[in-house]
From TrEMBL, chain A:
Chief subcellular location: membrane
GO biological process, one term: transmembrane transport
Xref: PANTHER family: L-CYSTINE TRANSPORT SYSTEM PERMEASE PROTEIN TCYL, MEMBRANE COMPONENT OF AMINO ACID ABC TRANSPORTER
Taxonomy, superkingdom: Bacteria
Listed PROSITE patterns: ABC_TM1
Entry keyword annotation includes Transmembrane: yes
Lineage: Bacteria, Pseudomonadati, Pseudomonadota, Alphaproteobacteria, Rhodobacterales
Gene3D superfamilies registered for this protein in UniProt: MetI-like (1.10.3720.10)
Protein name, entry field: Histidine transport system permease protein HisM
Keywords: Amino-acid transport, Membrane, Transmembrane, Transmembrane helix, Transport
TrEMBL record, chain B:
Family (UniProt): Belongs to the binding-protein-dependent transport system permease family.
Domain ABC transmembrane type-1 positions: 29-270
Pfam families reported for this sequence: BPD_transp_1
InterPro entries, per database record: ABC_transp_permease_HisMQ (IPR051613), MetI-like (IPR000515), MetI-like_sf (IPR035906)
Gene from which the chain derives: hisQ_2
Species this chain originates from: Leisingera aquaemixtae
GO cellular component: plasma membrane
Topology with respect to the bilayer: Multi-pass membrane protein
Name under which the protein is recorded: ABC transporter permease subunit
Amino acid sequence: MSCVETIQAYAFRSLGIGERLLPRGEYTLCEHFTLIGSGLIWNVYFGALALTTGFFLAVALAVGKSSPNPLWRKPAEWFIFLFRGSPLFIQFFFAYACFLSLKSVSSFFDPFTSAWLGALVVLFFNTAAYSGEIFYGALLSIPKGDIEAADAYGMSGWTRFRRITFPTMLRLAWPAYTNEAIFLFHATTLVFFSGFPAWRQQGDALYYASYFADKTFNPFVPYPILAFYFILLTLVIIAIFGAVNKHLNKHLPQERRRKFRLRPNLIR
Amino acid sequence: MFSYCTDPSTLEGLSWLSCYLTTGKHLNLYISVVVVLVLLAITAPVALLFGFGAASAARSKFLPLRWFGKGYTSIVRGVPDIAFFLFFVIALDQAFEWMRHKVKCPDWDQPIRQGIDFVVCDAAKLPLSASPQWVHETYGFFLAVLTFSIVFGAFAANVLYGAMRAVPRAQIETAEAYGMTTRQAFWRILVPQMWVYALPGLSNLWMVLIKATPLLFLLGVEDIVYWARELGGTKTERFTEYPHPNWHVWYFAALLVFYLCFTKVSEVVLARIMKRLTKGQATAGGEAQRKAAA
């Protein structure tokens, strides 16, 4: 098979489109690149969806945790502790086992036992907890003067939150939130190693990389390719989030703008 | 375990549970908890050592050494987490076998990589195929520790590098004014002072290290995740005296609680250490303590 044919056959293999059997026998570089890249679709899917949905819960959690009312504060604190204090790996295992036993109760839980929804739910809660903590930290460091100025203008409650607190919080939290986004994408590689089955061998990038490593007993080709793809993905995320960061900071004088620094945090 | 456990089918309630939780496989589960703790106890200092070495290398005046230190930290930190864990175990294993092969069988004429196979001579196999089971297990554990140390060493290096730069420049200059050499200033002034600055980062790293331990399962060590999966699965009467349906949920819930408790305890202990270390330091934390006391 020529490389073009390989790409045609396997580019969307992770979605079940194209050749059904995975490559066998001779494993060419082209096959490595195509199949691992095809798996990356799932990583992007999990990361992007969990990030966008998790954002809203994270804001709610941050506001809840900084609330003086313990009825709001305590649940938010516990939620954040629960998801930040335990390994994501165990959370996946636990959620999968939970969904499996709930499946026998009601057929409503059927889709939750497959990765596309079940793992997404876990990642959603997980990223909400991590970003919630980041946003909470940002809420605490909003300059006192900003709030006082808002008060002086007669703003309060929802108006003040929407016009002053929320934009400032977002601006302060954005560099840390960028790191969170990067590590959420890295964390998506755990999905198919944690109980969630890869249906018809439709897995993510790491799933295919370890498939090649298992078959060829040579880790030196697939894993660097995987790393290459993830570095590329990281650069894309930095570019997108950097553009947003610019937008959030555009009203500030040049030297007060917050710079983004990559602070990798490894495992969740 | 207990004398009344000989016929479990007649037992009920708590006595059944006490028998069930002390079967041989459950004892293995408890041992694996100890294994995790041992791994943490070994990895933490080794990773710190790696990190210290890399951080000092990154500060070195000798260019290749500086490249090595900086390259190591940025490569390991830049690539996704578990890819490294999957990669290093095979890579380290092959590297060790290749080195032994070169030393022990110099007159071997076949290529080592034959297509998709990695072939070394019998004497170079690690561990030797004739060696007992425990050697294989210890070797696996050793590889896991080494992998963890290499990965976390890079993170520790980053923290320590930052901490070394955080020590006020005037301190080093004073040391030089006293006539200390660069080496003396490093060991006598910089290293004792950097720990306060390093501790927040290192305690964060410790939390991350705790949360990384379930990945041992990926490294082929029979750890808690392995045993929880094994024990939680459905057991029929044919194979065990304690038949039960699928209990994965309970086992993983227990693991979750174990990790949460461990994290909580670590948080409390580290907060205490931090309080001790900041006492009397010229940092914001030390200042706050002084004001609170006054």
